[in-house]
């Protein structure tokens, strides 16, 4: 705004007997300020706001102010968002009668001005006196989720209430249509976007943004875990790209002790495996017989009889024999110390922070596959030559009442990791330090300051060819393949680690004896590995100067290999087989998008939306749909299947030749669309674009 205009506005205010009433007279007699953007009315109002600060005597109070507030409320009903703040400030609306303000917002709401009602409520901080469900529902149906987030942003109680409401709507069997029907006349009505998928995404975004306990949303959390479970079964039994061991680990941590998920697990096992496998899992989960289908309950009874017979004939020294198969701690049980107080921790630190000391460090946390947020460390293990210290971090955090106590652990860890005179042993230490930083924010950049770190993961990375192939052991009828640190322990020390307790609930107290021994072994074995590698590095393919091979900054655990490209699948021999070669025959005759109908697999929803914009008749699978549903839809409705990767191999055999096309998943939706249109010779005209409902 020019200086000349500002001066003119200020001279005008100075010449008025009542400038506050004068502004309202001007706004009531003009419509210039009602449009979008910065109007003349906006500039005059913002200049008056500044002018009042310099001339506080013009401020009104009492009955006169109430009259002005009543007038300004009528203007606010038509007011653009940029005028709200100046008018609220000039007419001191925060001091106005709260019932009057609530009544005005209610009037806007009942007129159908839901967005305006919400914005004004946020500006006047009226949310605690309003019904959060009533205010937010129409906004969600209009796809105004950002406004909903702002509405509850400063009120933890409302955040929790909103999350509980959204979770109720995601309950199996709840009909979302019952909500949308109430708002059918709504402008910008978007019921297609108001669905469980959108609500679920919103819930997770709010949980993350407001740091709310996920336990408030059991339906959404359970549904996400169920999707994870379905995905794990797909990876293991359809794609066959996941090992039994990894699959078992992830299924256990996904299902946990949740009875509802355990019931779904049994149903999936019946569908993909057999009754015996379902019965074994039912036994592991301690499921009551009344929860089990008849066939599974019958199979479980047979298993229990068989186990009783085996128990009766088991040798007396069975446990001792089993122990001989795994690495055993060479120190007495009395030398493993479980520390829960700061006094005990202080004694540990005095022993650890000695120059020339070699320490093995490991950490445990509760498995969090499919959960919200980062894992927090539950147990920190520090091993010395003659003893192991297990620090109970949740308890120590709980007891850190003063600021100085809260800084003790970060200070100790910084001293330990920055001291080059102390050798720190770990396995994939970057992952551990990231989890530790999530537990204690003061430790955020500690991995950058680390010195004297020996990451034994480098042995695996450097010496894949030297170390022998993976070996397997039979245990209780299940095949257990050694991997990671356990495999390294087996190669260097002769016996693998017993990883039975790896997926324990490390937050639960008291820890079981098996957990304590497992945790101590994980840290102590690093000392023994290091000692043996130092004595004879050449036999393990390391340079004679071991520090050259190992000592350095923590290494990040190697990422999984890049996903296979389109139409490349592993063959039984381990080589990659290319998909079908491009056809060299003449291209098909040109067709319009209206004549081209497709079904997009669930990993190609972006492509589906793009093709629909171009006028193509598109159906898309939902995230939870099995890929095989695409073949059913294609056969019933005469559609072409668009898919990618391994599902292409399955789906192409279920439809006629040329009716299934594999898209390159690594490309963006636009490039994918060009590839599809070119292959099927679909000719797009200007009239086709946005010719279909989006």
Structural description of this entry:
This protein is an alpha/beta fold and 694 residues long. Among the domains are: 220-304, no CATH class; 335-465 and 483-550, Ribonuclease H-like superfamily/Ribonuclease H (Nucleotidyltransferase, domain 5, 2-Layer Sandwich), CATH 3.30.420.10; 593-680, Rossmann fold. The chain is 50% helix and 8% strand. The protein contains 32 helices and 14 strands. It has a six-stranded mixed sheet with strand order 1-4-3-2-5-6, with helices on both faces. It has a four-stranded parallel sheet with strand order 12-11-13-14, sandwiched between helices. The protein is globular, with a radius of gyration of 33 Å. The two termini are 42 Å apart. Residues 336-538 form the 3'-5' exonuclease domain. Residues 553-590 are annotated as: Disordered. This is MUT7 Exonuclease. Keywords: Exonuclease, Hydrolase, Nuclease. It comes from Rhynochetos jubatus (kagu).
């Amino acid at each position: 705004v020019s200086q000349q205009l500002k001066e003119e506005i200020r001279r005008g205010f100075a010449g008025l007997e009542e400038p506050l009433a004068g502004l309202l007279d001007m706004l009531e007699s003009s419509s210039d300020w009602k449009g979008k953007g910065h109007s003349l009315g906006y500039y005059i109002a913002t200049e008056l706001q500044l002018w009042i600060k310099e001339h506080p005597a013009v401020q009104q109070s009492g009955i006169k102010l109430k009259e002005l507030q009543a007038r300004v409320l009528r203007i606010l009903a038509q007011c653009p968002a940029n005028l709200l703040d100046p008018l609220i400030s000039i007419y001191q609306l925060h001091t106005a009668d709260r019932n009057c303000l609530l009544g005005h917002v209610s009037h806007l709401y009942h007129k159908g001005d839901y967005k305006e009602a919400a914005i004004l409520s946020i500006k006047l901080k009226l949310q605690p006196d309003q019904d959060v469900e009533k205010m937010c529902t129409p906004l969600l149906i209009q796809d105004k989720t950002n406004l909903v987030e702002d509405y509850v942003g400063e009120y933890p109680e409302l955040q929790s209430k909103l999350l509980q409401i959204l979770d109720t709507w995601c309950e199996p069997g709840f009909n979302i249509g019952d909500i949308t029907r109430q708002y059918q006349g709504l402008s910008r009505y978007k019921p297609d976007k108001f669905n469980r998928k959108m609500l679920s995404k919103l819930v997770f975004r709010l949980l993350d943004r407001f740091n709310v306990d996920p336990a408030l949303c059991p339906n959404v959390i359970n549904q996400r875990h169920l999707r994870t479970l379905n995905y794990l079964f797909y990876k293991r039994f359809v794609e066959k790209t996941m090992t039994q061991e990894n699959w078992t680990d992830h299924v256990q941590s996904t299902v946990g002790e949740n009875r509802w998920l355990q019931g779904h697990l049994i149903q999936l096992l019946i569908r993909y495996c057999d009754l015996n496998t379902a019965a074994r899992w039912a036994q592991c989960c301690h499921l009551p017989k009344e929860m089990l289908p008849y066939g599974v309950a019958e199979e479980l009874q047979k298993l229990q009889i068989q186990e009783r017979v085996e128990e009766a004939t088991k040798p007396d020294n069975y446990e001792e024999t089993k122990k001989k198969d795994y690495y055993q701690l060479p120190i007495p049980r009395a030398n493993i110390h479980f520390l829960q107080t700061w006094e005990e921790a202080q004694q540990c630190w005095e022993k650890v922070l000695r120059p020339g000391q070699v320490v093995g460090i490991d950490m445990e946390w509760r498995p969090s596959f499919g959960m919200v947020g980062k894992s927090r460390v539950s147990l920190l293990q520090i091993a010395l030559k003659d003893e192991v210290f297990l620090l109970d971090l949740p308890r120590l955090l709980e007891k850190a009442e003063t600021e100085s106590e809260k800084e003790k652990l970060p200070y100790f860890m910084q001293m330990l990791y920055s001291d080059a005179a102390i050798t720190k042993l770990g396995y994939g230490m970057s992952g551990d330090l990231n989890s530790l930083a999530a537990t204690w924010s003061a430790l955020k950049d500690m991995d950058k300051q680390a010195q004297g770190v020996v990451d034994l993961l480098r042995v695996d990375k450097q010496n894949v060819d030297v170390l022998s192939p993976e070996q397997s052991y039979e245990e209780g009828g299940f095949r257990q393949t050694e991997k990671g640190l356990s495999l390294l322990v087996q190669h260097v020390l002769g016996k693998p680690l017993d990883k039975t307790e790896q997926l324990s609930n490390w937050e639960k107290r008291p820890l079981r004896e098996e957990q304590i021994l497992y945790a101590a072994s994980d840290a102590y074995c690093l000392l023994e590995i290091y000692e043996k590698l130092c004595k004879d590095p050449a036999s393990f393919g390391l340079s004679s100067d071991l520090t050259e091979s190992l000592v350095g900054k923590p290494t990040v655990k190697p990422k999984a290999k890049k996903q296979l490209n389109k139409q490349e699948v592993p063959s039984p021999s381990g080589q990659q087989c290319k998909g079908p070669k491009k056809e060299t025959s003449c291209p098909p005759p040109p067709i319009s998008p209206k004549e081209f109908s497709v079904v997009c697999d669930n990993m190609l929803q972006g492509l589906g939306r793009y093709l629909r914009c171009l006028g193509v008749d598109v159906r898309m699978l939902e995230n939870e749909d099995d890929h095989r549903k695409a073949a059913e839809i294609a056969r019933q409705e005469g559609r072409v299947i668009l898919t990618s990767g391994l599902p292409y191999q399955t789906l192409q055999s279920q439809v006629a030749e040329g009716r299934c096309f594999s898209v390159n998943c690594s490309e963006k939706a636009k490039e994918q669309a060009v590839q599809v249109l070119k292959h099927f010779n679909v000719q797009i005209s200007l009239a086709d674009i946005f010719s279909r409902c989006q």
